[in-house]
Design brief:
single chain; alpha/beta
Length: about 475
């Protein structure tokens, strides 16, 4: 560990740790980014989990919010060789009835295929598509007076509603099902308020930017951020687990890309008892159980178009998805869970040996459940792709406890850094007007437990860094 003194030390090299460190370093501050494991990236890591030559994204895989992020769009990422590829369809949702709902990059094509529901769908997503540059700073930031108040209010009228309410506007089962899959990314019951927000944004972003796949794996994003950070003078220390602030090099400010449970375990932060109690009351959401496969062939979907989609939602009808998400949230294990599936090697040949493939899927489970859900996930795939099991060469599984051990930010398998319901969407992790501050003005939080929450976008880190700059250096970064 270096003995020099730093203006800021950032703990955790996920997307938010990097965005905080880069933002501060760009303003002339001396920064050190510390990673507890031997590999940078947090949720953006890629490894050979099954067999040699099969590259699997351990956590994040498809990155619509990375392209939509004002922070990422402000960086010269292509300068370092980062490339994205796009599937013919951004998302697919097959039904047992034989129908398949497809999210095309082309909005009008999607609207035409949605038939009787085309106009309803258009009314939901078109404001996001046409006004994203104005809306992004309000949607992807802390609660404050909006930059575009009328546009934000119009977005909020739909976004604040439970996904179950919006579903009633659709006439066809096919479009209702796709809507359920979109909202299901929020990892909470679809009857909760604000669950429409994630569905509207993901669909709208799919048309505006697509759902891109990083060539070589999600690790490529982490490596690119690292290259840029080091190029502007930043320093990185790996394989250093922080338990006491006193063990760090001298520094003025500490920024934590950590969830409340981790923060509470660190000695020497000098947080007030009241603030610590607020962190203790922070609520986590459902966990996930994930499977990675090495495959002999592409997945034999009944509808071949599903094999050309970046992400496939498996859960049949809206009613089935909503019912099973509610039961899971209530602590039940269900036989036919909502499954999110990706097949990166179909589009990125570098992911597997020639002629072979990788695939990735997860389902939601009760928080902290260690139940093995391999069979139910594979059975879900068999419903829509008979013969899938015959293509499996090898598999790797990870339950909630193993996921938390791999990345402690995933408490109980919660990959969103805490449930993102109406009570914690903006007021996370505490009820403070500026959620990135702690009770100690030399300690800040930049993790997904702060607004705007989970996802590979770096905006939590950017806002935390901007708070540091305003509090201590009378500066502010505009993007």
């Amino acid at each position: 560990m270096s003995v020099k003194e730093y203006d800021v030390i950032v703990i955790g090299s996920g997307p938010n740790g990097f965005s905080a460190a880069i933002t501060l370093q760009q303003q002339g501050l001396s920064t050190l980014l510390i990673e507890g494991t031997d590999t940078i990236g947090g949720g953006m890591r890629t490894k050979e989990l099954t067999l040699p030559g099969f590259k699997h994204d351990i956590c994040s895989a498809i990155h619509p919010m990375a392209m939509a992020s004002p922070f990422f769009s402000s960086l010269p990422l292509d300068k370092y060789g980062l490339k994205f590829i796009y599937a013919p369809y951004q998302a697919a949702h097959p039904l047992l009835s034989g129908e398949t709902a497809l999210l095309h990059r082309d909005l009008q094509q999607t609207v035409r295929e949605f038939g009787a529901d085309g106009d309803t769908y258009l009314s939901l997503v078109e404001p996001v598509i046409n006004n994203w540059e104005k809306l992004a700073r309000d949607i992807m930031g802390p609660l404050r007076f909006p930059n575009a108040p009328l546009l934000f209010a119009k977005f909020g009228l739909n976004a604040l509603q439970p996904a179950t309410w919006i579903a009633k506007r659709f006439k066809t089962e096919k479009v209702r099902a796709l809507w359920g899959g979109m909202a299901g990314h929020g990892i909470q019951p679809l009857s909760n308020y604000t669950t429409s927000a994630i569905g509207i944004v993901l669909a709208g972003i799919g048309h505006k930017y697509g759902w891109p796949i990083p060539v070589g794996g999600s690790q490529a994003i982490a490596n690119t951020l690292s290259a840029h950070y080091c190029a502007i003078g930043g320093e990185i220390a790996e394989d250093y687990w922080l338990t006491d602030r006193a063990d760090l090099p001298k520094h003025k400010i500490l920024v934590l890309n950590l969830t409340p449970q981790q923060i509470l375990k660190i000695e020497g932060l000098d947080l007030t008892p009241d603030f610590r109690k607020q962190l203790e009351r922070y609520r986590q959401g459902m966990g996930v159980f994930k499977v990675d496969w090495a495959l002999s062939n592409p997945v034999p979907f009944k509808d071949g178009r599903c094999g050309q989609a970046a992400t496939v939602h498996l859960g049949d009808t809206f009613s089935e998805i909503a019912r099973n998400e509610q039961l899971t949230n209530n602590g039940r294990l269900v036989a036919k869970p909502f499954v999110l599936f990706t097949q990166q090697s179909v589009f990125d040949k570098s992911r597997a040996p020639e002629g072979k493939h990788t695939a990735w899927a997860y389902c939601h489970v009760p928080h902290g459940s260690i139940s093995d859900r391999t069979d139910v996930i594979e059975n879900q795939l068999e419903r829509y792709a008979p013969g899938f099991k015959d293509t499996i060469i090898a598999r790797s599984t990870i339950n909630t406890k193993q996921l938390e051990a791999y990345n402690p930010n995933y408490v109980g398998g919660d990959i969103n850094g805490g449930v993102m319901d109406i009570l914690q969407l903006y007021t996370r992790p505490t009820w403070r007007f500026t959620p990135y501050r702690t009770s100690n003005r030399s300690v800040y939080i930049c993790s997904s437990s702060t607004p705007p929450g989970g996802g590979v976008h770096g905006m939590s880190g950017f806002h935390a860094a901007n708070t540091v700059l305003k509090d201590h250096y009378n500066m502010e970064v505009k993007i």
